Amino acid sequence: MSRDSNTRRRTPPGIFLIKSVRGKDWTLKSYRYIILLLTFIAYASYHASRKPSSIVKSVFYPESLKNSKVNPWPVGNVFIKEEEFVSFDRNRVETQGWYPFNQSDGKSKLGEIDVAFLACYSSGMYVAGHLGDTLDLRLFLTTGMIGSGIFVGLFGMGYFWNIHVFWFYLSMQMVAGLFQATGWPSVVAVVGNWFGKRKRGLIMGIWNAHTSVGNISGSLLAAAVLDYGWGWSFIVPGALIASAGVLVYLFLPAYPEDIGFCGVSDSSPNLESLSQAEEDRAQKGPVVKVEKSSGIKEGSGSRTGIGLFEACFIPGVIPFALCLFFSKLVAYTFLYWLPFYLSQTGNFLVTALALLLNLHHMLEITCLYKVFGCP
């Protein structure tokens, strides 16, 4: 958006309240810590809300519903005792799965849900990037997080409402994918607004751990409440991301200008240009006079975005985008199907697969650093 659009943003109400109580503002360094923490929590909750579907697959289509009783190589039927076949039959009666995913085409339906989610997520990412350039990033991110929590929770409500219609679950995942697309463009833009290139490699290296933290916490939450009904495995992570969205709304200033600091501009490429005297005034100066009005600040809407073709001409974008394409292909296959694969086959190659996932995250950090950081 152009500067003459006169778009104005509000100071986050939580920060406005704290400034009113304290009687003075925080330093730039303190705000940076807040930005890192809030964006870390935000995107970790995004990933946590994506994990339940991989955990619940084995409940929708349990191991006892496999068509064949033949164990995988090298065990085979030679080493199977008669008692184990009896136990298998008993388990088959007790565990029936969840219709329509417990039919012969259950695996295909589970795959269709994943494809629908990722298709909406990837297509929505492009739209979300453009919307993030024109809308208030704080409100945009809050809307995406709360919307994701609602539709992830609605997917889980299918258990309590006893819904067995495939299109219900498919549509919930598709809409959730669209809301999930708001996460990555928004948090990267916010971090980029607050940190200069000199520290961006270090920041990305530490901050990008939110992906692993989110995946681990999402798996733990979904598995912890699975015994109470698979619906809770979606409702709890959904409530988590919605609660994180409320935190973002209350405390996340998307731009330094929103709270009175000098921001990034063409003539001043990063926040390091903030003079020491200005930061000293923010830290040691007299008490800041807090406005009694709504705390409206100007500057958040004065940023201009670039188009897709302009972005492609940035050195390093295309080759690293291709690297991420193939690494994400492997990563999401593991993230969505690894628990189901292990429950179905009993093949415990967890260490090797976890190593591949870690290599993927290392590649992602490298790509972000090379594209956005210093040469």
TrEMBL record:
InterPro entries: MFS, MFS_dom, MFS_trans_sf, Sugar_P_transporter
Gene Ontology CC terms, in alphabetical order: membrane
Subcellular location: Membrane
Keyword Endoplasmic reticulum: no
GO biological process: phosphate ion homeostasis
Superkingdom, taxonomy of origin: Eukaryota
One term of GO molecular function: transmembrane transporter activity
UniProt KW Ion transport keyword: no
Major facilitator superfamily (MFS) profile domain span: 37-375
Keywords from the named record: Membrane, Sugar transport, Transmembrane, Transmembrane helix, Transport
Topology of this chain in the membrane: Multi-pass membrane protein
Chief place of localization: membrane
Alphabetical list of SUPFAM superfamilies matching this protein: MFS general substrate transporter (SSF103473)
Transmembrane segments: 30-48, 139-161, 167-195, 207-226, 232-252, 312-335, 341-359
Family membership noted in the UniProt record: Belongs to the major facilitator superfamily. Organophosphate:Pi antiporter (OPA) (TC 2.A.1.4) family.
Name of the protein in question: Major facilitator superfamily (MFS) profile domain-containing protein
Source lineage: Eukaryota, Viridiplantae, Streptophyta, Embryophyta, Tracheophyta
